[in-house]
Amino acid sequence: MYLSILEYSKELVAIFLLGIAAYQDLKTREIDDKIWIVILAVNGAFTAFELWFYHSLIYLMLYLISVAVGLAIAAVMHFGKMMGGADVKALIALSLTETPKFRYIYGYVSIVPSLAILTNTVIISLFAPLFIFLNNVRKIDYLYSDLCPDESILKKLIALFALTKVSSKEYEKNKHKYAIAERRDGGCKRIMLSLFLEEKDSDVQPSGEVWVSYLLPYILFIFLGYLCYVLRGALIDLIFKLVGYF
Hints:
The chain is mainly alpha-helical and 246 residues long. The chain contains ten helices and five strands. It folds into two domains: 154 residues; 87 residues, no CATH class.
């Protein structure tokens, strides 16, 4: 009973603080580092008590595997410039403080918290390209009008799901949400595609409409991924389970 109360308390602390971080990410793309410190301090103490209480080698090994997986993924994301600093800190904080939940017994991923949260985050983030596509479809009549005639069909197709066009006024007003994704080539434009986070080019002075990539609020995806983990475990385990029925 006491462990259940402790587990739910940890989850409420994490949900509350991740919710604040997600709100900050949506508003400014800047997250207060104190959030991660509080998660580590409060939930870290809860986690230490859990590990002491169980006195189980298997439980400890599962926890250490989760920590190792989470830290390794965070390192790859950081040094590969595939995530921002706050996103990496969120993964580290959750990896260090989340312990295995045996209430999810229908899959193997669910008992490795860091992997479950990450895969949930990835699955949820896949809805972002759909949102971008639906937004671009509304502009399809003029979406490609400023591109060079020989711009490849493949790049145009990728841009349809990964980039969008906004007015220069919108870009200047919300620079924290966008990164320039075009370059001039004479009198036309070339699309710039990248998997990595890059520093903004302060010399770029856009005019008219400009191609941009969204600086997606990944903390929001991590928050939703964690929420799904708390409620149902790893979504990928559920998917595999459902596929097994058909």
